[in-house]
């Protein structure tokens, strides 16, 4: 299991506590220190079943100047923008060994990814 997190984020700290309580092994990627590439982001949004703009944090995207149309024509632009401005990416993103991926901001998402590890 891998978790992309920002240690200053309360949702990330909650997710780590849940992973620890469940006793699962995981690796941490501090995505602000080691930003994902556009290719990695494309893989993540595909596993999430979302589009890049769906994992953008509105305030941070706006602050970064990301003002792109939300359509297929601009999908690659969104991926590049998020890779360039990782602070605009929702967090935490957790991927189980079987590929199950969630934005772990709520208990239901955390339960789903933990269930994939069982």
The CATH homologous superfamily is named: Glutaredoxin
- DSSP summary: helix tally: 5
Globular, elongated, flat, extended or rod-shaped: what is the shape?
Answer: globular
Helix/strand-derived category reads alpha+beta
Task: Describe the main β-sheet briefly.
Answer: 4 strands, mixed
Q: Could you name the CATH class?
A: Alpha Beta
- N-to-C CA distance: 11 Å
The CATH architecture can be given as 3-Layer(aba) Sandwich
The total domain count is 1
Radius of gyration from the alpha-carbon trace, in angstroms? 14 Å
Question: CATH topology, anyone?
Answer: Glutaredoxin
Helicity level: 40-55%
Strand order of the largest sheet: 2-1-3-4
What integer is the average pLDDT?
A: 96
Low-confidence stretches: none
Number of strands: 4
The ordered string of helix (H) and strand (E) elements is EHEHHHEEH
What is the strand content? 5-15%
